[in-house]
Specification:
about 80% helix; 3 helices
Length: about 80
């Protein structure tokens, strides 16, 4: 899970045009919540968001695969 999450987040950061972007008000709102004051903190916030979303995607796919595997095993 950790390797897949980190890999997906890194790939997402290297290829930002492959995914839809968040609207600017969303980033401003998050920046206000986390009290972002410089570009480095903004980059850290972006990494945190990408890692969180990557973890969600990897977890969801893992649970779907486990669910489908259990259904397949139960039908044997």
């Amino acid at each position: 899970m950790i390797f897949a999450t980190a890999s997906l987040a890194l790939w997402w950061l290297v290829n930002p045009d492959m995914y839809p972007t968040f609207p600017e008000p969303f980033w401003e709102w998050l920046g206000h919540i986390y009290a972002v004051t410089c570009c480095e903190e903004q980059a850290n916030l972006e990494l945190l968001v990408r890692l969180s979303l990557s973890f969600f995607v990897v977890s969801l796919l893992t649970f779907i695969v486990i669910f489908l595997w259990r259904i397949k095993s139960a039908n044997k």
